[in-house]
């Protein structure tokens, strides 16, 4: 990551120590705030407010925020069979807490007259993702929220972009193994940071598909009739992901 600023704030739930060490090794100061996006406490939000007020929101340059939150289904399934608590958690984390965090950082960006907000999204919000309906819905919220805010905040010098990720870029859903379409997280992040402000084949305003093999997938997907896309998503991608998800759960249960 081209991290070249003195301060940055991290709003992470867990495992920030390692990242903190890596950033400090590059000679930068770090302020770590722990916020549980599923069940945040008032104190946790206040910690983020304090960090912002101290000027610790710089991640990429000037004032910038990368919102990476994503709580997802353990595996594809029918909506009415889903764990209701998990569905509520997804909405709380991906929608409500995303909105709250944005509300905290925007005023400082407006005061400074600049800012960058990158919201991590998903192909699930591209068209539809049957059997992962709640996750797709939450990422759909983030997409139109980002696009709408982008127009609102443009006059204040603030850029907002929704980054489309495709299955396999991270650890979600038991992703494992790397391929052209399933890059290492660092490869994906580099693409995203190198192409800020570029659409890279995305159709909608203020959205980007920064990793080029995924741009090809988007092109092919956009040529398909929607019900066909949905069926392919379920029977091809969905089944594969389901198998990996099942493997991941079995592994976790055995530990
Ligand atoms: N992997 C994929 O296949 C895929 C595909 C498309 C889009 N995406 C999107 O890419 C982003 C990163 O996903 P990933 O694959 O890297 O999955 P991940 O490893 O599960 O990461 C999800 C992110 O959300 C954070 N998070 C989860 N629960 C949280 C909570 N209760 N409070 C605060 N933070 C919480 C995690 O922080 P901790 O590290 O502290 O847990 C992590 O930063 C997500 O927005 C996801 O929707 C992923």
From TrEMBL:
Molecular function terms from GO: oxidoreductase activity
Pathway(s) of this molecule: Lipid metabolism; fatty acid biosynthesis
GO annotation terms (biological process): fatty acid elongation
One Pfam family hit: adh_short
Keyword Lipid metabolism in record: yes
InterPro entries: NAD(P)-bd_dom_sf, Sc_DH/Rdtase_CS, SDR_fam
UniProt KW keywords: Fatty acid biosynthesis, Fatty acid metabolism, Lipid biosynthesis, Lipid metabolism, NADP, Oxidoreductase
SUPFAM superfamilies: NAD(P)-binding Rossmann-fold domains
Assigned GO CC terms: endoplasmic reticulum
Protein name: NAD(P)-binding protein
Record organism: Coemansia javaensis
């Amino acid at each position: 990551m081209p991290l070249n600023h003195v301060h940055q704030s991290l709003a992470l739930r867990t495992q920030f120590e390692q990242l903190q060490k890596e950033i400090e090794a590059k000679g930068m100061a770090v302020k770590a705030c722990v916020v549980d996006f599923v069940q945040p406490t008032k104190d946790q939000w206040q910690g983020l407010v304090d960090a912002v007020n101290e000027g610790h929101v710089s991640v990429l340059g000037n004032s910038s925020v990368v919102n990476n939150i994503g709580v997802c289904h353990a595996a594809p399934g029918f909506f009415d069979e889903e764990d209701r608590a998990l569905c509520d958690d997804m909405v709380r984390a991906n929608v409500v807490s995303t909105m709250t965090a944005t509300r905290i950082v925007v005023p400082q960006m407006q005061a400074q007259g600049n800012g960058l907000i990158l919201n991590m999204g998903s192909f699930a919000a591209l068209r539809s993702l049957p059997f992962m309906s709640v996750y797709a819905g939450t990422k759909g919220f983030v997409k139109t929220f980002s696009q709408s805010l982008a127009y609102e905040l443009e006059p204040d010098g603030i850029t907002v972009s929704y980054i489309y990720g495709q299955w396999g870029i991270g650890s979600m859903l038991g992703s494992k193994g790397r391929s052209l379409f399933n890059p290492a997280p660092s490869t994906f992040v580099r693409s995203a940071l190198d192409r800020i402000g570029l659409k890279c084949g995305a159709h909608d305003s203020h959205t980007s598909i920064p990793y080029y093999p995924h741009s090809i997938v988007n092109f092919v997907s956009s040529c398909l009739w929607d019900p066909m896309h949905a069926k392919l998503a379920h029977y091809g991608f969905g089944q594969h992901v389901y198998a990996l998800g099942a493997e991941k759960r079995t592994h976790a249960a055995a530990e």
